[in-house]
């Protein structure tokens, strides 16, 4: 007997409201699914992770595929997600936790295309800023690898940096007084990406080029489908 699968798209969310950023991207990717799906937020009291599990269980799902619509695996992905899900999943359920989106080819292509569109007469260096975490080393190692690949692809020196933890972007900016291309590697244009942009504009005496985030981009759709490709839950084009 075939076990019925279901996909749960896990988004960060906000405590005070349901955030709409990237919901359209998730829905576009979900239109390719051949199994039930739901969206669960880690923060807030509406459309919670637990609600999404209960919803899919009510549809007869026994295998739950969790896809974090986040960029890197830190506390939310490594600890909070499996801990909370484990308390709600049916006893006979099978849970699969997929990797977040940051290391997908789709995200790398998005970043490369962003840089490709910049003037090449004086190839500026790039500061690639991610959220960061003080608790795990893997996210920055992955960010370093992305920066190395972008350096090879673009012909520009790409410096990886964090907002939180070690390798802070503010410290690296002090070492790079020349105009830079600033790429904020975030899935939304929310509080932190906006704060980073405002901070750079206010404190830097040179004119940096600040590129858009991934918010609501088609790259998010492609990254989601890339992660789901090996789960046998999508229609083949």
UniProtKB/TrEMBL annotation:
Keyword annotations of the record: Lyase, Metal-binding
A GO molecular-function descriptor: metal ion binding
Transmembrane segments: none
Pfam family, one: CbiX
InterPro entries per record: CbiX-like
Protein name: Cobalamin biosynthesis protein CbiX
Organism: Enterococcus saigonensis
